[in-house]
Amino acid sequence: MKINNIILRTVAKLVFFIILTLAVYLFFAGHNSPGGGFSGGLVLASALVLLFIVYDIETIQKGLPIDFKLVAAFGAFLSVGTGFGALVFGANFLTQAFDYFDIPFFGEIELTTVTIFEAGVALAVVGVVVTILLSISEDE
Amino acid sequence: MSTLVLAIFIPFLAAAIIPFLYKYIKNIHVGWFVILVPTGLFIYLASLIPDISGGEAIVQTINWIPSYGINITAYLDGLSLTLALLISGVGALVILYSIYYLSLKEPIGTFYTYLMLFMGAMLGVVMSDNMLVLYVFWELTSISSFLLIAFWYQRKRSREGAKKSLIITVSGGISMLVGFIMIGAMANTWSIREVIAEVASISDHALFIPALLLVLLGAFTKSAQFPFHIWLPDAMEAPTPVSAYLHSATMVKAGIYLVARFTPVFGGEAVWFWAVTGVGIFTLFWGSFNAVRQTDLKALLAYSTISQLGMIMSMFGMGSAALHLGYSDESMVYTGATFAALFHLVNHSTFKGALFMVVGVVDHSVGTRDIRRLGGLITLMPITFTIATIGSMSMAGLPPFNGFLSKEMFFISTLDITEASFFGLGTWGIIIPIVAWIASVFTFVYSTVFVVKTFLGPYKEEKLEHPAHEPKPGMLISPIVLGLLVIIFFFVPNVIGKNLITPAMSGIFPTFAAEGADLGTDIYAWHGFEPELFMTIGVVLFGALLFFSRKYWSGIYNLFPEKRSINVFYGFVLDQMEDKSTVITNKYMTRYLRDYMVYIFAFFILVVGGTFIYTEAYQFTLPENATISVFEWLIVLSMMATGITILFAQSRLTAIVLNSILGFGIAILFVLLRAPDLALTQTVIEAVTTVLFLVAYYFLPELEKENTSKKTKSINLFISIGVGVVFTAVALGVQGNRGFDTISGFFENSYELAGGNNMVNAILGDFRAFDTMLEVVVLLIAGIGIYTMIRVKAKKESDQIEDK
After folding, report:
1. What digits encode the pLDDT tens for the residues B223-263?
2. NADH:quinone oxidoreductase/Mrp antiporter transmembrane domain spans which residues (chain B) (predicted)?
3. Does B687 sit within 8 Å of A79, measured CB to CB?
4. Which residues of A fall within a CB distance of 8 Å from B758?
5. ipTM tops 0.95
6. Which of B163, B214, B455, B512 has a Cα at 20 to 30 A from B206?
7. What is the domain partition of chain A in residue ranges?
């Protein structure tokens, strides 16, 4: 029996991008208000999970040919790497630096190494969640 | 710049890069890139010789965990530099040799990765001033040695040899760690230099002798001293470059280094003197005695290494006697033993490295190392023969090779020590030179066996796998270099003596150096007709006699049959431990998830509940709490109803959905209690886990009614009520009990300290980023674990590879 889920598919296409935007927003908002790498990553993962549920896995993998194991590994690498990055500048392991910069048009912007660290967290979360989901669902 | 600390980490960096080089550069042997690392390090370290030999020491620190005083402090004095030069110098030669030894068909990428890991770890051991950092590097050398011994892991003997070496050296390492912690507790510092400075105040401490014994245990296991030597012969399953590098020139010297490094702390104690000298001298004898009976060339060299390590060890023991007396003309005599020990340490690396490489060449050429099949190679492999002779004669202590110089100095030290009147040496001291001399006779015998049996006598081509021939010239470069060093060191020994060993001496006898003592010794080949010369002549005469009458006295080895050896005892203990622990484990590992949950919850009730009652933390007052609003009541009540409904769910799907209601209920509570971060995370987590549950649900069988006995049911009821009660009590008790001052005030400044207003994230990403980082790593490991468990299935053929 083929389930007719045309409404779900149509909505999912739209909602996917809304969730994606939310994920990006949460990721950057995390510095000063609720959000952050972990929740941003989770939201992003849930957007992908939605796609995997609504469409079948093959379709999504064709459209998004990403090896999520590598995403997870790269995320962990970024997080650990920022720790060692601090050593290069003579600071203690995992010291995070931040400063405020005046950038034309955007005004004053704070740039910080926590962003890189959190990006690692987010990528690791996305990678691991999708990897687990795909491993379980593709098992025969 | 912390170039010295960097030097320790360069091999590790190389280890990370090698796999990529190996993967993408196919037609060039990776060894050619790898060899740059030790060569570069050797040149850099050699450039420091002028500073160090002037009596300076270089100290550089990179903070690691400063709040616990654990920092990566690179400390380079004469002793460290001597060993570091050996590690990088012999390392470069061994890699050059291995380029010709290992063909491109072997997984050389892994080989060089392990080798670089080892090199970095070993440099870390000899250059670390912090005891805990030293310990970390120490265990890393054990692990990389394990990986290298098991390089041909398809062979059963390789795997067993690797396991044995790991078990013995790591157990020793752990006891050493306990010793270090004791020293740290006594001296209140992890820095070896500071411990040495404070030694007067800790030497009467009750833990001083236990710490001494534990540190020695670590040193003895690593340096293969009797009775822990049994791992070294089995480690010879490793590729020959590894045997030459780790198991004769460097890693096994780590224990000796440790003894030398801690001589200023423990030296002067009678226990230290007798343990180090006694074990060393007995190992010297036992190793050389057993080497004679070996038929495998590598096993012969393994026992000879054990013996030589024992000799160096015993010299450090005899040298430590000087510290017992304090600085005086009399005590200065004993420091000669330490000087000889350091000199022999260098010499041994040169001649034993050359000999191991020779064995590799022979093995490579004719396909066997069994002396019963070898013979007559002298005409076919003349260059190899020459190197073997140089190495063996140096090992036997004959001129004009460097082994002669250090052997003579060894004899002088054993004679000097008999004249001492402390530590009971007046009565027992005479044993030392006698045992030393007997052992040296055996050393002469096995050195002769090595050369004569391999290169002289009839050539038996029918017993060999390939006809004998000299290898490619490249393979001979490294042994030739080492062989030349053996001769050069004989003629200009004082170059090393002045520039490396004398500064090393002032590190071992800092109190003497502070008094302005001249710790250097001039090395002469000719001492005149002194007792030590007669001892050497005696060694040669009796050795030759024993060699030719070998078949008449070799029956003596039947007194030590294989079935009563330490090896068998070791195997017996290991088997027993495995059997007994299997029995115990099978008792509680029932393979029922239900039982495991019972353990977890019972533990929770007993430990958490017990602590709660023990600390009387269960008092709480309800009136102080905030009032509960209608919304909160509604949510909590519906969650309670859901929780109870789960128990009666007839299908898994219902249970999963109900479970997620509980999760979302918590998320709403977080919103009401003004915790937006938690609410956000909880919502998403709940959504994702529900999907994961549903995916897994597809594979699960239908939910069936379980037929459980009354007894099980009542236990379950008791446990569930117990967990609920304990948890509620903890939740309520948390309010009224503060064991420590609150630290949340610190985090309120998150905007100034971390540049972010979100305190939670500032904690996660900055204040406690270490936790987060490790959580990310753990998450990755869990993900990979699930992936491999489900997706990577063992192939059928893999069973056959095992147990070859």
Report:
1. 999 889 899 988 888 899 999 998 888 899 999 999 999 99
2. 128-425
3. no
4. 30-36
5. no
6. B512
7. 6-138
